[in-house]
Structures are given as structure tokens and as C-alpha cells.
Design brief:
Elements lengths: L2 H19 L1 H22 L1 E2 L12 H12 L7 E7 L2 H16 L5 E5 L3 H7 L6 H23 L3 H16 L7 H16 L7 H6 L9 E8 L10 H13 L8 E6 L1 H35 L2 H25 L2 E2 L6 H23 L6 H28 L7 H21 L2 H8 L27 H10 L1 H18 L18 H11 L8 E5 L2 H12 L4 E5 L9 H15 L2 H4 L8 H20 L7 H20 L2 H16 L2 H11 L12 H4 L9 E7 L6 H14 L4 E2 H34 L3 H24 L11 H22 L11 H20 L5 H36 L1
Parallel strand pairs: 1-6
Antiparallel strand pairs: 2-4, 2-5, 3-4, 7-9, 7-10, 8-9
Length: about 900
């Protein structure tokens, strides 16, 4: 051993001897530290869910975003309320009611915006293209003859009377297309028979798909009041919205559904997902580690002592996090799971060495001191290299992982100190029975490995020695395959893929991404004045990756003179229709039944007319539906029959009055200029000091990384200060990759230097590094060959694997050098057993993260699990093979 290792071994042995003399004092001291840490953490350890804050605020793209948010603070931490209705009328009415309700109470929301809603109702036709406007005019001309009658009697009686007259006119040779209205009536009858909520869209019937606001989706932009010091900053606002869903019938049962998305809502859902994942992961990790400890040390007392040590170390680490950082973030919240797996390693190595030395009649203090001196140096060195993997992230710009690195890195040393202090004290107070099955390592005899991994221990232990050359050849081939595959590794810049797709906010956002009409993946550019905004927008429209670029002047419709002329014609076509209004008394039940019978007779005449019926199948189906309805009415009580017809009246005509009113408003459109745009709209595009916002939309699907990179590059070439979700996602990803590269190189260099200082020479250092690098390369190759990608969460795994994986090699080399000549029996020693079970605790601990509902956490857990497993296999097979080849060469 080196002088440093000798000194460490002696110091740790001395320390454990001192602990064994006053075990109750040590236990009391650690209990007080643990309790104090838990209390301090409960009072001072907060939760920061601000995803933007996970990267350094000094990065250029974050500075650009800060400038943008200062100019347009209403777009920061927003919720987008998506109101989806079976018809446009239902969605529009619900959005109006909800916006008014939210605006009345400013305790939950700072702003509630439906920019220019009334303005667009009035001038909607001006925002149609000329062909669309002409089509709307033609559609209105088709329905105008019916609307006159219907406008005067907006009831089931008026509708069926109008249809009866229209069918008779068709039979007499009139060229009327009644199929849309007949089909709508048939659908209403089907819905009533099935007991399903239904509302006929008169907007769709009058204006077709070219109608202004033809889609049944409305938006409200709301800015909740958030407190990032709380675990769930948006909980009050979202709870209120959830309550309004039920009180305002916006849960979908009445034709309208409210879904909430946007940054604030997605962060809320993500925090819940992370919290659930962390909680479940910690419990699973703890249970799995206990089982592995029990299988490894085979002593309930040692397991209990190890578990108590783990708990206390976690408490102290939480207290350190409260002091050093003050909060946890979406990544550092995983420190508990990581420290459970890593902290158990030290307990396993000490317990197994203690058990190996604990022969019958042995002095417990001497056994503990000797066990500590034998494994203490390698544990300290392994802790240092593990901590390097975490601390390497501290100086990077990835603040979220930097905080994890600081907390978990310190937690490694806390676990080490606790394992070398509290654990020996507990084992002194509650000693394990002498095992009598493993003799002292100092004998160096083969009997020291009589405990086995299983039934075929000897064959397994001898495998690397017997097949060393074949193993080396296979390792070289695997290394070559890994080297060839690593250049194809890719990074997923889409943060949406790190969120739980089952969350409402994520599902709603993804629907908007998939929508051509309302894509949320847009870039915003801040320009000093209108002229600059116009120039930039014009240049951006010429780019192949841009579908459109919009600024405030683009809200002034083009070709207004021609459009206003068409609107005037539409107003003339409608004549007095929209001014008449309902002028009749509500119909009686007898009148409604009579008009149903008249319409049924008209359908029969149409089907039996001498000329070929124009809509035979539809007319026959509709006649059968009405006949069935009349039969049901006859069989029902008068009250039930009246309620049935009233429900049918609402189903078919409830939206008609609002639609006629909206049409009347839209036909009164006038000229629009920049000055006449409403202030509620202008403030979304122009600041008080005259700066203008330009919004740029992509031509391609930005879920593809290359399309995202191309879009951002093209726009940034025109406007280097551009910001928005595509820019932030790409630049944040690049910053994370840079942080990973920095941390990886730092870890590798520091670990290499430590190994050179601690090992006897470069050859020993290379022997430890070679399996480690092979395990890391194979881990990366698995990611590539299985079609997975690196992302914001799992990319931190590789630097961590360097620190974690090198521990195995250090323990093996330390055992070999402390017991010369044990090449043949190395895999049958307690050290190899400890390496195996230590890695197993790390695997099950990290593996518990893979069960998280948060995709980012799950991907990190999965990659760490695969990495530790591959590193373990390489360490237990390739390293012994290399050692045997070196021994053969020396011989």
C-alpha cells in the first residue's frame, strides 16, 4: 500500500477504536445531529420549481429572455386556459363566462386576458381571406330564405314549420340544399334518444367551415399569483379552476371542457410528478437496500445498524442542504435516493469485513478496529472519487445539477463519516454473533472465500483467470463497437418529453403543438419601434423554415375595401332578417306535436313524390326517428312528454339567438387601422415605451431536433436576441451538454490524478481506469443502440458513473495489494462479495428511480442502473482478467 493508504488505514482504525470505547456517547451525538438537522431542514429547506432557474442567469439566452419578460411581464408564468366545446357557440359562451368570473377576483390571478374578443366579434369577417369571405356570403345566401321564418319563431315549432315548407318547395322543383339542416336534425334526434348532451351549431350551418372563429376552441391567458417558496406554487389558482370546472359545468358533460396548460400549470403537474416519484423512489430504494443488506451480510443486527446509519446520514445531509443551498430543485430532490444507494456501500464493506474477522471468542473492539483499518482507506478513497463525480457539476452553468452535485457530494462524505462512526458504535453495543465461516484475510488461504455467491462460486471465480485472453479480446471488440456507436448519440431538446404525458397540462399542450392553427412553439423578438419590427418580420417571412411572422401592424386586415363591399352585400342579403327577432309566443305541447306530425308527413310526401327524392336515405332515417319520437311521446305521461320536447327544442335551437346576434354584429364591421385596434390587443404586442414584439412560427414540426436547430439558427441569424420556447429549449440543451462535457472531463482528470497518486504507478491506475471507461462507453452504446436519446435529466449519469464505478476497482486493487498473491482467489474474498452487494444496492437504489412517473427522473434512474450494472460486470470480469494477464507476464 502507499503511504497515504497506510496512514488512512491507521487513522481510521484508531478512530473506530476510540468510538468503540464510548459507543453511547457517539450514538447520542449522532442522534442529536440527526434530530437537529431534520428540524432545521423542516424550517428552512424549501422547494424551487422554477425550471428557468436551473441554468445560470448569465447565459446569453437567459439574458435575452429576461429583457423580453421585462417588456412583456404578462407572458411570464402564465396559464393558458383552453376551452373546447362541441360547437363554437358553446366554447365562446363558456370562455366569456369564465373570463368574467376570474377577472372579478384578483387574489388568485394578476391578469386574465381575452385580447380583443369584442373587437374580433365585430370585425371577424375582415380577417377572412377573400375566397373564404365570398364562400361565407354564398352560404348565407343559401340559408337566408329559411332564416326569415326562423328568426320570427326561434322554437321547435318554427324550425319544423320552416323545414316542412322547404321540403314542399323542393318537391315543387326549388333548388334548395336541405341536407346539412336535415342531417343536423337527425343527429339531434339520435342524441336525445341516447340521452346524450347535444347542441346544434347554427354558426356552422350558416357559415360553414369558413366562419369566423369556426373552430370550437377558445383561449384565456391568465397569470396566477405564484409563490416559488412553496412546493406547489400554483396550487391555489389550479384548485380554484378545478372547482370552477364543476360549478360552471366545464368538465365535458355539457358540451364544454376546460383544460389548463401553460408554464405555471405544467410546472405544477411536474412538481407533483417529481414529488410522487421521489417519495415512491425513496421508499422502494430503502426497502430494496434493506433486502440486499440482509442477503449480503446475513445478520439482522448488522442490517438494523446499517439502516439506522443510513437514516441518520440522510437526516444530516438534508440539514446540510438547508444550510448550503436552502432549497431543492426538480433534480436535486433525487439526492435521497442516490445517497441511500451510495451510503449503503460503506456499511456493506465494513460489515462484511467485520463479519469475516469476527471469529468465535474474538474481541469485538479489536475486530471492529481491524475491519476499519482494512477497508477504511479504500472506503475513503472511493468516497473521494464518488464525490468527484458529483462535485464536478458544481462549477458548471447547469445550476440545477450543480446544487445536486453539492448536496449529494457532501452527502457521500457524510455517509462515510457516519458509517465509520455511528455504525461501529451500534455494532459495539449490539455485536453480531461470530460467523466462524470466514477466516482472517491475513492468512491469505483459499478458505477465506468459503462463503460463496452461489452454488458455482469456484467456477465463477476461476472464469476470468482461465479465459483471460478471450475476455480481453471480447472487451476490445465491445470497446470498438461502443466507439463506433457513440458518435451517433443524440440529445433530445424537447422538454415536453421529460414531462408525464398523462398530465392534463402536458396533454393539452401537446394537442396545441399538433394543431396547425395554434402552435405554441413560436419565437418572440423584441424590436425598438414599429419600423424595425416591420423590417425584421419581412426578412423572417422569406426564410424557408418560417411559416409566418406576425407583429401588431399585421392585425390590420388587408384588402379592406373589397371585403367591406362583400360584407355590405351580405347585410343586404340578410335584409331585415336579423332585425326581426322572435315575435311569437312559446308553443304549446299540442302545437309542437302537431308540427312534428306535419313534418313527418312532408318527409313521406318527399319520399313518395313522382320525382326521385334528393336525399332518400337521410329522409327515410329522419322519418323513422320522428316516428319513434312520436311513439315515445304517446306512451309517456304528459309531463314527461313536455319535458322531452323542451329538451329537443334546447338541443336544436339553444345556440340560434346568440349566433344571430353574433352575425348581426359581424355584419356591422367598419374600417380597421393601427389606431383603432383595441388597447387590450395592442398591449400584447407593443410596450409603453414603443417597443414592438414580433412572433415567428415554424414551417416544420419542431419535435424533430434538426428542424428545431434549423429554425432557431435561421431566426437567430436575423435577430440574435430572439427568445421563446424553441430558443430556450435548444440553448438550454446546449448549455446542459456543455456542462456534461465539462463535468465529464473534470471527473476523469481528477479521478485519474487521484489514481496516479494512490496507486503504485501508472499501470495500476490504468488497470482501474480501463474497466471504468469500458463500462461508461458500453452504457453510452446501449443508449444509442436501443434507440434512446440523452436528455436534460439523464445526461448527468455518465460523469456520476465515473465516480461511482471507480470505487469497485479501488476496492479490488486495495484488497489485492493488502493481500499479495491472491489473484486466484480475488473473486472469492469478502471484498469481491462487498463489491457485488454494494453495486447491487446502488443498482436497486437507482433502479427505483426508473419507476418514477416523471419521465426525466425515470430515464436518469434507468441509465444509472444500466451503467452501474455494466461497470460491475466489467469490474468483476475484465479487471481480474487483466490482473491475471499481468501476473502471467510478470511470471
Amino acid at each position: 500500500m502507499t503511504r497515504l493508504e497506510t496512514a488512512l488505514s491507521a487513522a481510521i482504525g484508531w478512530w473506530i477504536g476510540r468510538v468503540a470505547r464510548a459507543p453511547w456517547l457517539v450514538v447520542l451525538a449522532f442522534c442529536l445531529m440527526g434530530a437537529g438537522s431534520v428540524y432545521y431542514a423542516s424550517q428552512n429547506l424549501g422547494m424551487n420549481t422554477d425550471r428557468a432557474g436551473m441554468l445560470s442567469a448569465r447565459l446569453p439566452f437567459r439574458l435575452n429572455y429576461a429583457d423580453y419578460t421585462r417588456a412583456f411581464p404578462q407572458y411570464v408564468d402564465t396559464m393558458l386556459l383552453v376551452i373546447e366545446g362541441d360547437t363554437p357557440e358553446l366554447a365562446r359562451a363558456a370562455a366569456g363566462r369564465l373570463a368574467n368570473r376570474l377577472a372579478r377576483d384578483d387574489t388568485l390571478f394578476k391578469t386574465v386576458l381575452r385580447p380583443g374578443a369584442a373587437f374580433f366579434d365585430r370585425h371577424a369577417f375582415l380577417y377572412l381571406d377573400l375566397p373564404e369571405l365570398r364562400q361565407s356570403a354564398d352560404d348565407l345566401a343559401q340559408v337566408q330564405p329559411f332564416l326569415g321564418t326562423l328568426a320570427q319563431d326561434q322554437t321547435l315549432r318554427g324550425l319544423l314549420h320552416m323545414l316542412t315548407q322547404a321540403l314542399d318547395a323542393v318537391d315543387e322543383g326549388e333548388k334548395l340544399d336541405l341536407s346539412p339542416l336535415l342531417k343536423a336534425l337527425d343527429e339531434g334526434l339520435d342524441a336525445q334518444r341516447a340521452g346524450r348532451f347535444h347542441r346544434l351549431s347554427w354558426q356552422g350551418l350558416m357559415l360553414g367551415n369558413t366562419a369566423p372563429d369556426a373552430g370550437a376552441r377558445q383561449f384565456i391567458l391568465a397569470q396566477p399569483r405564484l409563490d416559488y417558496g412553496n412546493w406547489l406554487a400554483a396550487a391555489p389558482a389550479l384548485n380554484a379552476l378545478e372547482e370552477l370546472k364543476h360549478t360552471m359545468a366545464l368538465e365535458g358533460s355539457h358540451g364544454v371542457a376546460l383544460r389548463v396548460t401553460g408554464a405555471a400549470a405544467m410546472e405544477y403537474d411536474e412538481m407533483q410528478s417529481v414529488a410522487r416519484g421521489a417519495g415512491v423512489g425513496a421508499v422502494l430504494s430503502f426497502v430494496a437496500v434493506m433486502l440486499v443488506l440482509l442477503a449480503g451480510v446475513r445478520s439482522s443486527r448488522m442490517v438494523a445498524a446499517s439502516v439506522a446509519t443510513l437514516l441518520v446520514s440522510l437526516m444530516i445531509t438534508a440539514g446540510f442542504a438547508a444550510v448550503a443551498v436552502g432549497h431543492l430543485n426538480l433534480i436535486s430532490v433525487a439526492f435521497a435516493v442516490m445517497n441511500i444507494g451510495l451510503g449503503a456501500d460503506y456499511a456493506i464493506h465494513l460489515c462484511l469485513r467485520y463479519r469475516e474477522l469476527n471469529t468465535r471468542g474474538a474481541n469485538q473492539t479489536n475486530v471492529l478496529r481491524t475491519a476499519g483499518s482494512h477497508v477504511g482507506a479504500s472506503l475513503a478513497l472511493a468516497a473521494a472519487t464518488t464525490a468527484v463525480g458529483f462535485f464536478a457539476f458544481v462549477p458548471t452553468a447547469y445550476a440545477g445539477v450543480s446544487e445536486l452535485g453539492l448536496i449529494a457530494g457532501a452527502g457521500v462524505f457524510i455517509s462515510l463519516i457516519t458509517s465509520l462512526s455511528l455504525l461501529p458504535a451500534l455494532l459495539t453495543l449490539f455485536p453480531s454473533r461470530a460467523s466462524g465461516d470466514i477466516s482472517s484475510a491475513s492468512s491469505g488461504s483459499a478458505s477465506s472465500g468459503s462463503e460463496s455467491f452461489g452454488r458455482y462460486t469456484d467456477a465463477v471465480a476461476a472464469f476470468p483467470r482461465r479465459h483471460a485472453r478471450a475476455i480481453l479480446c471480447i472487451a476490445l471488440v465491445l470497446a470498438a463497437v461502443a466507439a463506433l456507436s457513440l458518435p451517433f448519440a443524440s440529445f433530445d431538446y424537447n422538454p415536453l418529453n421529460l414531462r408525464d404525458p398523462d398530465n392534463e397540462s402536458v396533454a393539452a399542450f401537446q394537442d396545441l403543438v399538433d394543431s396547425d392553427a395554434t402552435p405554441p412553439w413560436s419565437i418572440s423578438i423584441l424590436e425598438p419601434d414599429a419600423a424595425a419590427a416591420a423590417r425584421v418580420a419581412e426578412r423572417l417571412r422569406e426564410l424557408p423554415g418560417v411559416s409566418r411572422a406576425i407583429s401588431l401592424p399585421d392585425h390590420v386586415p388587408e384588402e379592406q375595401a373589397r371585403k367591406l363591399a362583400i360584407i355590405d352585400d351580405m347585410r343586404l342579403i340578410m335584409g331585415l332578417t336579423l332585425m326581426t327577432g322572435a315575435q311569437t309566443d312559446p308553443p304549446s305541447y299540442a302545437e309542437q306535436r302537431a308540427v312534428l306530425e306535419d313534418f313527418q308527413a312532408a318527409l313521406a310526401r318527399h319520399l313518395q313524390s313522382g320525382a326521385t327524392p334528393r336525399w332518400p336515405a337521410l329522409s327515410a332515417r329522419l322519418r323513422a326517428n320522428i316516428k319513434r319520437l312520436l311513439g315515445n311521446l304517446k306512451a309517456a305521461t304528459p309531463a314527461a312528454a313536455g319535458q322531452s320536447l323542451a329538451a329537443l327544442d334546447r338541443s336544436l335551437l339553444a345556440t340560434l339567438p346568440d349566433t344571430l346576434q353574433l352575425l348581426d354584429t359581424a355584419l356591422k364591421a367598419g374600417p380597421v387601422s393601427l389606431k383603432t385596434l383595441p388597447p387590450s390587443l395592442a398591449v400584447q404586442w407593443r410596450t409603453s415605451d414603443g417597443a414592438y414584439r414580433v412572433e415567428v412560427f415554424p414551417e416544420q414540426d419542431l419535435s424533430d431536433s434538426e428542424a428545431l436547430r434549423s429554425f432557431v439558427a435561421q431566426v437567430s441569424a436575423v435577430a440574435p436576441h430572439a427568445t421563446g420556447l424553441p430558443v430556450i429549449s435548444l440553448k438550454a440543451g446546449e448549455a446542459v451538454v456543455a456542462a456534461f462535457q465539462q463535468a465529464f472531463v473534470t471527473s476523469l482528470l481528477v479521478i485519474a490524478v487521484l489514481l496516479l497518486l494512490l496507486m503504485r504507478g501508472p499501470r495500476d491506475a490504468l488497470l482501474v481506469l480501463a474497466p471504468l471507461l469500458l463500462g461508461g462507453a458500453l452504457t453510452g452504446a446501449v443508449v444509442v443502440l436501443t434507440g434512446h436519446t440523452f436528455n436534460f435529466a439523464n445526461i448527468i449519469a455518465l460523469p456520476l458513473l465515473l465516480g461511482i464505478g471507480v470505487d469497485n476497482g479501488i476496492h479490488m486493487m486495495h484488497r489485492l495489494r493488502s493481500q499479495p498473491g491472491s489473484y486466484a482467489t480475488l473473486l472469492r474474498t469478502s471484498t469481491a462479495r462487498a463489491v457485488f452487494y454494494s453495486a447491487l444496492t446502488t443498482i436497486v437504489s437507482f433502479g427505483s428511480l426508473a419507476f418514477s412517473t416523471h419521465p426525466g427522473t425515470a430515464s436518469l434512474g434507468l441509465l444509472l442502473t444500466v451503467g452501474v450494472l455494466l461497470t460491475l460486470i466489467v469490474t468483476l470480469i475484465v479487471l481480474p482478467a487483466l490482473l491475471n494477464l499481468r501476473q502471467d507476464a510478470n511470471d
